[in-house]
Amino acid sequence: MQLIVISHPDTVTNEARIINQLFDAGLTRFHLRKPDWDEKQLVNLLRQIDQTFYPYIALHQQHHIAVDFNTKRLHYTEKHRLATEPKKLILQKEEGYVLSTSTHADKDLRSFKNFVSLTQDITNSSSPLFDYTFFGPVFNSISKAGYQSQLPNDFQLPSNIATPIIALGGVKPSNLDKLKFMGFDGAAVLGTIWNDSVQAVTNFRKLQEYLLTKQA
Question: Is residue 105 pLDDT above 80, yes or no?
């Protein structure tokens, strides 16, 4: 299973240093999500991150600065995706960008499937437009109080979605096995990493070691 770390939406003490340490510990994908930050704040944080890691960072906002930081990873929120012309996304794919997006409920998965079919009709390509999508909350959120999962205990993903689905919301070592049963291709973590930023790297290592053990 893939393991992705999402940034805390607000400022974190020693944030850039912790992000560098997470990469040094083996992180291969980091989603930079700061919905209330302006371009200057994002640029300031990125400049404090080792440039070696830029290709592994996906931008949720300010997509236009990607070219300045040698990253080809762009994330679209559900709202942003629905407001974007498919032709723009197709052009970005042709330029080599890795695109990801978000969905939040069963009905969203169905509409997402239709959206993928639409773009495939345009491109005549059998490859999904988005390289993966977040789906959640799968469990009750750790970082957002009251943001609870609406999924039944026996939930399983439909088997006919070509795009890899990454579980989001309430992910921690004790429920990683359940994600595999549900059919997820990976997990994205936020609260488990950032709710105690002093333990961020330690908690990341626990998740990583658990997944490596299960996949061995």
Answer: no
Question: What local confidence, expressed as pLDDT, does residue 34 receive?
Answer: 98
Residue 61 neighbours by CB distance under 10 Å: 19
Numbers of helices and strands, H then E, in the chain: 8, 8
Separation of alpha carbons 107 and 68, rounded Å: 37
CA-to-CA distance for 53 and 22, rounded, in angstroms? Answer: 10
For residue 185, count other CB atoms closer than 10 A to its CB. 16
Helix, strand, or coil here: 156? coil
Rg, the chain, Cα only: 17
Q: Partners of 133 in the beta sheet?
A: 101, 165
Structure tokens at 196: 């105690």
State how far Cα 168 lies from the chain centre: 8
Supply 10's token pair.
């607000």
Given a cut of 90, whether residue 155 has pLDDT beyond it is: no
Instruction: Name the residue type at position 204.
Output: F
Model pLDDT, residue 151: 82
Computed over every residue of the chain, the mean pLDDT equals: 88
pLDDT band, residue 120 (cuts 50/70/90): low
Determine the Cα–Cα distance for residues 109 and 99; give it in Å rounded to an integer. 17
pTM of the model: 0.90
Between CA 118 and CA 104 the distance in angstroms is: 20
Query: Is residue 160 helix, strand or coil?
Result: coil
The arithmetic mean of pLDDT across residues 4-20, rounded, is 97
Using CA of residue 125, residue 127, residue 130, residue 135, what is the dihedral sign?
Answer: positive
